[in-house]
Write a structure and sequence with these properties.
Elements: E1 8-9, E2 16-17, E3 20-26, E4 32-37, E5 41-42, E6 45-46, E7 50-54, E8 60-67, E9 70-76, E10 82-88, E11 95-101, E12 107-111, E13 121-126
Antiparallel strand pairs: 1-3, 2-5, 3-4, 4-7, 5-6, 8-9, 9-12, 10-11, 10-13
Length: 128
């Protein structure tokens, strides 16, 4: 541990609870921050000793409508970011449906092949 580095207490912080943070590292892409220490919870999720948090608002997908065999949803997130929209039928194997550039307004995205699958899962991933 660096002797010049003073551990930060998170006892009263609403995001991490339980003790000291001893190490911080920004991932090379700048999209997330890693930290290690003696805490037990981050953002209300059990995270013992090690956690990863994002440095900006993550994109989100919300349902808009299903009709004519197509599934339309809305993509929102931090402006001036590009997102990749992925789909899966089993949450293990993902493939890309397309990309979208985020703006101040929700972006509409349509999966025209949704009717061909019994179930379908979606995620939005920031493209560094």
């Amino acid at each position: 541990m660096d002797p010049q580095f003073s551990p930060v207490r998170f006892d009263e912080n609403p995001y991490a609870y339980g003790g000291n943070v001893y190490s911080l590292a920004l991932e090379p892409d700048g999209l997330s921050l890693l930290f290690a220490g003696e805490f037990y919870s981050v953002n209300g999720v059990l995270r013992t000793w090690f956690a990863r948090v994002f440095t900006f608002q993550q994109p989100s997908l919300s349902f808009a409508e299903y009709g004519g065999g197509s599934y339309r949803f809305l993509l929102t997130g931090e402006s001036v970011r590009t997102c990749r929209i992925d789909a899966s039928t089993n949450l293990l194997d993902w493939f890309t449906l397309g990309t979208a550039s985020l703006t101040n307004s929700p972006q509409s995205f349509i999966d025209s092949n949704a009717a061909n699958f019994k179930r379908r899962f979606y995620r939005a991933v920031i493209v560094p």
